[in-house]
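Subject: Sanity check before I submit

Could someone independently write out the structure tokens for this chain? I want to compare against mine line by line before I put it in a report. The sequence has 496 residues.
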Amino acid sequence: MLLFMSALAQTRHAASSKYMSYTGLAMAGYQGWFNCEGDGADRGWTHYKKNGKFEDGNCTIDFWPEMDEYEVKYITPFKFPDGSPAYVFSSYDESTVDLHFKWMREHDIDGVFMQRFFSVLTNSKRTRHADKVLTSAIKAAKKYGVAISLMYDLGSMDDSKYTMVKEDWKHLVDDLKLTNQGDSTTYLFHNNKPLVAFWGIGFSGRETSHYSEILDIMDFVKNDPEYGGCSVHLGIPGRWRTLGSDTDGDPRLHEVIKQADVIHPWLVGRYSESTYESWRKDYIVGDVAWCKTEGISYSPTVWPGFSWHNLKENEVSDKRPRNKGKFFWSQISGAMASGAEMIYIAMFDEVDEGTAIFKCAHTVPVGKSIFVPYEAEIPSDHYLWLSGLAGKMLRGEVPFSNTIPDRLGTGIKENLIPGSEIKIITNPTNKQFQVLLPEHLDQAGYEVYSPASSLVLKGRIDNNQGNIHMNDCVSGYYILRIKAGNDTFPFRLILN
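---
Independent answer below. Compare away.
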């Protein structure tokens, strides 16, 4: 009788989701691990401080977040070139997570894998922080219609305590309702089942590769009558297929992979812009073919750039330059050209290793600590925009392109229209742009559009000149279209 009742037990997950498959999606990793003094988490400057301090010469972040849109911000000892104080955010604040998911929706980013480290399960303060961030993310994902999934990082797992992962999964399903938000569930499914990810299997240089433990965990999330019924996503080394140098060389890695539904090789730092094509041909093309033979979905990691100079003193700053997004786009288009049908983006918010795609600053603090600024020619949301396009290109909503797209979508190079002779003069102090028309354009109309293509301002320019006041606009990238007669002249505005 007990066996019969167990067989009929109902899963605790939603029957369906807005996102029933990872195929055709570009999903980013979301760390959510930043804390500040005074944020209520009692964790100090977590993932900011170094040597117990967060001050000039002691920090772990290489990029500085652009802070204009945050509802709650925390002052730091760092200073900008003009002497003004620099602020940062805390992931513990619900408003921070809400803003990040708002950016995802505005830029058509499909969703994120919420990272949950094994150390979270062994420390009450970390558990409290991680649960609060995840609760905020579940709420924001539902609010903005963005996909969300959970990724356990097991890289540093104590194998003697691995069953804590099972108990934690029960806690998330029961108490946070992670996989069941009713009819409006946006938790990511794959193969028609909730997708749960585990990262850190089979890597070299680690105390353990967790083979027997991960097989038991996978069996639980797949087959438990109440908490199972899930698909499994595995984060594995980049040379997994050949059992190369970033793996432990153990063939059991392949045995584990064959039990998974999706694999995502970790590729951050494995190549530079000049060597990417060689890596793609040597590894990604063969990886895709192997996975198709085994019936496993393949999600390569793509990343915008890499820098951890402040985290590791002997490392150079800007170790893998972004090149205004060209490096990032070469990986996105290369993955698709190799046959990948989904993408993992590293990472949404990781400023401490310089892989963040969210809005980062053009002007950065100065001093002993060296920060990498976004190039002046690109807007702060440039990588959010490219990430949204990646998903659209996967689904065929925009044409495939090996070349990084023109953001205006007009095929016309901004500010380089022959004969227009229109000049834009920036006054950053009062958020004002002066427009000077050539003599043959006495009058013109103008429209200003946000990154999401919403009209935010419109007006006219008379007697060859006029001012565009953007006092009520938040910092970011805007498109100015000046209309004279039958001609439209597009320009790029960056509001700092």
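---
OP: Matches mine. For the report I'm noting this point. Residues 222 and 228 are 5 Å apart (CA to CA).
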